[in-house]
Specification:
Layout: E1 23-29, E2 33-43, E3 49-60, E4 64-65, E5 68-69, H1 72-90, E6 96-101, E7 106-116, H2 124-135, E8 143-150, E9 153-155, E10 158-161, E11 171-182, H3 183-195, E12 199-205, H4 206-214, H5 217-222, E13 224-229, E14 234-240, E15 243-250, H6 254-265, H7 269-279, E16 292-295, E17 305-308, H8 309-334, H9 337-340, E18 343-347, H10 356-364, E19 367-370, H11 389-410, H12 417-425
Parallel strand pairs: 1-6, 6-12, 13-18, 18-19
Antiparallel strand pairs: 1-2, 2-3, 4-5, 7-11, 8-11, 9-10, 9-11, 13-14, 14-15, 16-17
Helix pairs in contact: 4-11, 6-7, 6-8, 8-10
Length: about 425
């Protein structure tokens, strides 16, 4: 195995892929559903490559809760089904996959490092030295490194320096953002994938993937937060100056709203999910207190119980606001709230609830929009909504990585420091 140094995982050992270089496969293992996308890399021009989904499959997720495997057999059945559907749709047998993960077992922290530039002019050796020195500060724990994402360099007092080569300076610095995970949740997922005789090319953190899929270039640069409200978890990622600077996942999501509805209306979880999807809203309407709907009944007595729409909206609104308030607390504690709240992008299945954007605007008082995956082709209406953002983001991550490998092969040399930096830091943004 060779060390493949890149922005995705700067110091990790890369597994060799047995799959066609032009085919990428992503699996999003969520608490509500398992999604599998198979995509083809199209050579648009010599410099430009694009992704096109050629096969997709998804199914209800069983055996997964809050991103963790709780029933290995059920989880394996769900993952197999999603993959089988995607393979049939694409007419391709896959051999390797990238896996999207989410859960409160994901952590994010930044390490900073700097060196004095004795020669006064920054060169390639200085760049290598400052990255290596900063990485040595990382203290190994029981966490597995998923991503090491470098921000741009800072030279003397100037931040956001993309290429410091040739600059006169007294000091060169860099920030490395480590996104890590507890080992056991990854191992449990890895064991299931290995049973299918598939190679795991890598894990991708959901907060990172969702941001890649949904944020526009100016949002990545100017400062934004991507909030992916899924079923069992909500992922928060903050981007600034073109890179991810913070990521966190909390165990709150649409499942908790459905559970509240089931308790409040005294019905089953399955019926509550249907009621939420049919009549759910986060904003009270003027006539909601006058509207009544029947609760499904599985009993043979055919007794029909009714509920007032205003009661349903109150239940949903209360829990949805709680989720956003918890997200706000995370943003405030991140140290990047000033940049994060310049733009807020909501995505994930629960963000599709009617009124979700309006409620968020009242709470955060800033620019808010609904995020959907738009950066790859082949997404039909059925698989192009917010609940498919993270799986799309994994493919974008893979394309960036593939582009870097492609460029390193086609380039004859690395005389210029710019080429060296691209090989070293990757081109994720």
């Amino acid at each position: 195995m060779k060390k493949n140094i890149n922005q995705i995982d700067l110091f990790a050992v890369e597994n060799k892929s047995n799959q066609s270089k032009n085919i990428l496969t992503a699996i999003d293992i969520g608490s509500d559903k398992i999604v599998c996308f198979i995509a083809k890399i199209d050579e648009v021009t010599r410099e430009k490559r694009a992704l096109r989904v050629v096969g997709s499959g998804y199914c209800q997720s069983k055996g997964i809760r809050n991103g963790r495997v709780v029933d290995q057999k059920e989880a394996e059945k769900s993952i197999r089904l999603a993959i089988d559907k995607a393979e049939q749709d694409a007419n391709i047998e896959i051999k390797s996959v990238y896996v999207c993960i989410s859960g409160d077992f994901l952590k994010s922290h930044v390490l900073k490092g700097s060196i004095n530039v004795s020669e006064r002019t920054i060169n390639q050796e200085h760049v290598s030295e400052v990255i290596s020195l900063t990485n040595k500060k990382y203290i190994p724990t029981n966490q597995k490194i998923i991503h090491i994402v470098p921000s741009n360099f800072f030279v003397d007092g100037t931040r956001n320096v993309t290429d410091p080569s040739g600059l006169m300076a007294d000091k060169l610095g860099v920030e490395l953002n480590y996104i890590t995970s507890e080992v056991n949740p990854l191992t449990n997922i890895e064991n299931i994938i290995k049973k299918m005789h598939l190679n795991i090319e890598g894990f991708v953190a959901k907060p990172y993937a969702s941001g890649l899929a949904c944020l526009h270039e100016h949002e990545l640069d100017f400062g934004s937060v991507c909030i992916d409200i899924g079923c069992g978890t909500t992922s928060i990622s903050i981007f600034f100056e073109g890179t991810i600077v913070y990521a966190k996942t909390i165990n709150l999501g649409g499942w908790y709203i459905t559970n509240d509805v089931a308790l409040g209306l005294q019905t089953s979880f399955e019926h509550a999910e249907g009621i939420k999807n049919l009549y759910g809203n986060t904003i009270m309407g003027s006539n909601d207190s006058e509207k009544y709907y029947e609760i499904p009944n599985d009993k043979e007595d055919n007794v029909r119980t009714k509920f007032k729409l205003s009661n349903l909206v109150s239940i949903i609104k209360y829990r949805y606001e709680e989720i956003l308030e918890k997200v706000d607390e995370v943003i405030e504690k991140s140290g990047y709230s000033e940049y994060a709240k310049r733009n807020i992008i909501l995505t994930g299945g629960t963000s599709d609830l009617p009124g979700s954007i309006e409620i968020a605007q009242r709470l955060f008082e800033t620019n808010i929009r609904l995020g959907k995956p738009t950066k790859i082709g082949g997404l039909s209406e059925d698989i192009g909504g917010p609940s498919f953002s993270s799986c799309s983001g994994v493919l974008i991550h893979c394309l960036k990585k593939s582009k870097k490998n492609h460029d390193s092969i086609t380039q004859k040399g690395t005389e210029k420091i710019g080429n060296f930096l691209k090989n070293l830091m990757g081109q994720d943004f």
